[in-house]
Specification:
Elements lengths: L4 E9 L3 H8 L2 H7 L6 E6 L5 E9 L2 E7 L3 E3 L3 E10 L2 E13 L2 E12 L2 H8 L2 H20 L16 H15 L8 H10 L10 H8 L3 H14 L2 E8 L6 E5 L8 E4 L4 E4 L6 E7 L22 E7 L4 E5 L5 E7 L6 E5 L5 E6 L2 E7 L4 E6 L5 E7 L9 H4 L3 H6 L11 E13 L2 H8 L1 H21 L2 E7 L2 E6 L2 H21 L1 H4 L6 E15 L2 E5 L1 H11 L6 E4 H4 L2 H6 L6 E5 L8 E6 L4
Parallel strand pairs: 18-20, 25-27
Antiparallel strand pairs: 1-8, 2-3, 3-4, 4-6, 5-6, 5-14, 6-7, 7-8, 9-10, 9-13, 11-12, 14-21, 15-20, 16-17, 16-21, 18-19, 22-24, 22-25, 23-24, 25-26, 27-29, 28-29
Length: about 600
């Protein structure tokens, strides 16, 4: 190996660090825009629990092979990415980026360091290698600065695949078909443009919640538009099984009846099970008939590949690293890249505790100085220490959430688990309803009129449930079972039902007389399992039983809420100032009296 050479560049931005970092640290997007070649990564677990990463690619006449080291970074501070080649003209290549405030904006110092493997590598490094990097990356930095400042619509110049006239007409038809449904919400054209014009890195995992935030639209509208786009043929839906450590998809399938019970993450070298509310994500990508994506990586690791990771730094055995870092208040997880123990902490802000790693533990140590973090490796081998933000689920459309939406159940009623399979759901909120005095109602208005009335009341309930991001799971006689991923949404739906039932009755006064219908409601939240029952996705377990029993405690017009549901801060805030009665009763199937809360009909 010859002598290493390096070169540095400085770029200035008129926007602050938090606007520039997400663009310039998105190494996969940056590499695609720079027209660097895709590569394949082979991941081989090692006896000590670590993983060996071998990359392979072709650039021009050269076949390259290298050992890929995990990228080191500290959020909004710096990153370092190194490759050690075993094939090709270069022996190693490292890229380092540092970002720092500068006036009202920031500056980036970028360094590339490389060493030749042979005479050809020496010639390459002595001639056009560094000037080409400077020209190419300097252009991208200018584009990133303009994007951060709002002077351009996309981060980088990109030439999307050419779309033929027939394909354009087909997409136009799909857009019209989507908007002709109740689920388009005026977003079909934007989804079509995303599919046809965006970089591939934007299309590998289209996340509706991220689109909703970027487009400043309601999350439910974005989700429903994506679901309808699958039915139309613009997108395809895939269920990703995410590694619980790195949060990257390690298995994926096209329908729930093929969902594996678990998977292995070669990157983290761990096995894990499927859980609807934790690591099964509904993701979207272009339908292959519209745009086929190429295989291969632009960057396996990188700060924006796993944006929930705030610190990822290699620390040698027996060594300590003290680094500048400012971490916002919130829930964090301390761990290493390889398998092993974890430690969850809640950071109140200010100085962050040290992260201490040993062979059999990871723990928070003494609080350090303001604006820095101490990483101490007491184990017998080099470790990659990680501090991750546990609020990573912001953009993750987990299976428990999407399967509890009415649009999913209407459009994908056949997407169910294999008979006999079951998948855990960490938390779901269930609402059971029933009609009070339905037998007397049938006698009063007759069976035919009662049938139509019950059908209308089902539609009324479904409308309120859908508007509050829930779904009707099934009807049982005159009763309804509905599911919600968010407890507050369930309570909002219950309040809306009891508030709007008066208008429902007023519209049908001639059919029912003066009495009208009276609805009984009971709600409970907790864990359960998802199963397939009667060819539909259903829920089973103690949470289901409790919700049904609480509905039985309703007098009609009121709302009965379980104690765990009322323990939710958002629910307490929602019901603040309302008169709630605390009660308890012995209910069928439960040994001890069950405490609950009743919101009276006048609440």
């Amino acid at each position: 190996m010859g002598k290493a050479k390096s070169h540095s560049w400085t770029w200035h931005f008129d926007q602050p660090i938090d606007a520039v970092w997400p663009i310039m640290s998105d190494t996969a997007r940056f590499n695609e825009a720079a027209k660097l070649p895709r590569h394949e990564i082979e991941e081989t677990p090692q006896p000590d629990g670590s993983v060996l990463y071998i990359g392979r690619a072709r650039t021009g006449p050269f076949k390259l092979e290298w050992r890929e080291k995990p990228v080191n970074w500290v959020f909004e501070q710096w990153f370092e990415h190194c490759r050690y080649f075993t094939r090709g003209p270069i022996a190693f290549l490292c890229a380092r980026l540092k970002i720092a405030p500068e006036g009202q904006g920031c500056r980036i110092d970028y360094e590339a360091e490389a060493a030749p493997a042979n005479w050809l590598g020496s010639l390459i490094l002595a001639t056009g290698f560094f000037p080409a990097i400077g020209k190419n990356f300097g252009k991208l930095a200018k584009e990133a600065a303009d994007f951060a400042a709002g002077r351009r619509d996309t981060p980088f110049e990109y030439d999307p695949p050419v779309v033929g006239a027939e394909a354009e007409r087909r997409v136009e038809r799909l857009v019209a078909d989507i908007e002709a449904t109740p689920h388009g919400h005026g977003l079909a054209r934007r989804l079509a443009d995303l599919v046809l014009k965006s970089q591939e890195v934007d299309l590998w995992h289209i996340r509706p919640l991220a689109l909703a935030r970027d487009w400043k639209v309601a999350s439910l509208d974005a989700i429903e538009a994506c679901l309808q786009s699958v039915k139309a043929g613009l997108l395809e839906l895939r269920w990703d099984l995410l590694c619980p450590r790195c949060r990257v998809a390690k298995a994926w399938i096209g329908s729930l009846d093929r969902l594996p019970r678990g998977a292995h993450c070669p990157t983290c070298n761990v096995d894990f099970d499927a859980d609807f509310s934790k690591n099964v994500e509904a993701g979207f990508r272009p339908a292959p008939a519209i745009r086929r994506l190429e295989s291969g990586e632009y960057c396996l690791f990188g700060p924006m590949a796993t944006p929930h990771i705030r610190v990822q730094v290699e620390v040698e055995a027996g060594k300590t690293r003290r680094l500048p870092a400012v971490l916002a208040p919130g829930p964090y997880r301390l761990r290493c890249l390889d398998p092993g123990p974890i430690s969850d902490i809640d950071h109140a802000g200010g100085a962050f505790p040290a992260v201490i790693v040993d062979d059999d533990r990871v723990e928070a140590g003494p609080v350090q100085g303001e604006g820095e973090i101490l990483l101490e490796n007491r184990s017998a081998r080099t470790r990659v220490v990680i501090v991750e933000d546990r609020s990573w689920t912001r953009d993750c459309l987990t299976a428990d959430r999407v399967t509890s939406l009415q649009a999913f159940r209407d459009l994908f009623s056949g997407d169910v688990l294999r008979p006999g399979d079951e998948v855990a759901i960490g938390q779901v909120t269930l609402m059971f309803s029933d009609l009070k005095g339905s037998t007397a109602l049938y006698e009063r208005i007759g069976d035919a009129a009662a049938y139509h009335l019950v059908r209308d009341h089902f539609a009324f309930l479904a409308e309120q449930v859908r508007e509050h991001q829930g779904a009707i799971v099934k009807t049982i006689g005159d009763a309804v079972m509905a599911a919600f991923a968010d407890p507050a949404d369930a309570v909002k739906a219950a309040l809306a039902i009891q508030h709007e039932v008066a208008a429902f009755n007023a519209d049908r006064r001639g059919e029912m007389g003066e009495a009208g219908i009276v609805i009984k409601l009971g709600l409970h939240k907790g864990p359960c399992i998802a199963v397939t029952l009667n060819e539909r996705l259903d829920y089973f377990g103690g949470t289901v039983n409790m919700a049904a029993r609480l509905q039985g405690r309703s007098s009609g017009g009121d709302i009965v809420l379980s104690q765990p549901l009322m323990a939710e801060p958002e629910v307490r805030e929602l019901l603040a100032g309302r008169k709630l009665a605390e009660e308890s009763a012995v209910v069928k199937g439960f040994d001890q009296p069950v405490p609950y809360f009743r919101l009276p009909a006048t609440g």
